[in-house]
Amino acid sequence: MKNVSRMIFFTIVFMLIQSLSVHAASGTELMNCFSVRITIVENELEHEWEFDNPNRYEYEKGNTVIKGEKAKAEVTSLLKELQLSEKKTKEDYAIILKHKFPELEQFEIHWMNRDSERFVWKMSI
Fold first, then answer.
1. pLDDT of residue 58
2. Mean pLDDT calculated for residue range 95-99
3. Of 115 and 9, more confident
4. Which has more confidence, 98 or 31?
5. What is the percentage of the chain residues whose pLDDT exceeds 90?
6. Running DSSP on this structure, what letter comes out for residue 117?
7. pLDDT at 18 over 80
8. Is the peptide bond before 54 cis (omega within 30 degrees of 0)?
9. How far, CA to CA in Å, does 84 sit from each of 74, 87, 121?
10. Residues 105, 27 contacting (CB under 8 angstroms)
11. DSSP H or E stretch at residue 43
12. Contact of 104 with 42, CB cutoff 8 Å
C-alpha cells in the first residue's frame, strides 16, 4: 500500500510540473508585450490581431470581430510564430508571414514592449 501511495504522489507531482511548464511556455510571447497590433492583407482580405496588457484580445477577419478566449488563441498562435524582437527586420517577418499566408500582400506590426519602447515593421509585398 505504501508503494501505491508513493506512486500516486509522484504521478500527481509530475502532472503538476508538466502543466506549469506548458503554461509558462505558452505565455512567454506575451510576457514581453504591453501592446501589439498586427495587420495583414491577403487576397484583399484584412486580418488584424490585437493584444493590450493585461488581458484584452481581439481578432478581426474582414468584417468579423472575435474577442475573448478564441481571440486569445488566435493572437497567441501568431505571436508564437513571429517571436517579436527588436532585433528582427521587416524582411524576417515577411518570410514568417508568407509561410502562414502564401498570398500575403502587405503587413504592419506595431509592438510596445514591457519597457514602453515602440517598434513598427511594415511592408508591401
1. 98
2. 97
3. 115
4. 98
5. 69
6. -
7. no
8. yes
9. 15, 9, 10
10. no
11. none
12. yes
DSSP 53: T
Q: Can you spell out the DSSP letters for 69-98?
A: HHHHHHHHHHHHHH---TT--HHHHHHHHH
Sheet containing 45-52: give its strands across.
Answer: 64-67, 56-61, 45-52, 33-42, 104-113, 118-124
Q: Which grid cell is 108?
A: 504592419
Place of cell 509561410: 99
Three-state SS for 63?
coil
Which residue, chain included where needed, has cell 470581430? 65
- Name the grid cell of 82: 513571429
Among 19-28, 32-41, 91-100, the range with the most confident prediction by mean pLDDT is 91-100
pTM: 0.74
CA atoms within 13 A on the CB side of 59: 14
**C-alpha cell of 101?**
499566408
Which set of grid coordinates corresponds to residue 83? 517571436
Cα distance between residue 31 and residue 88, in whole Å = 18
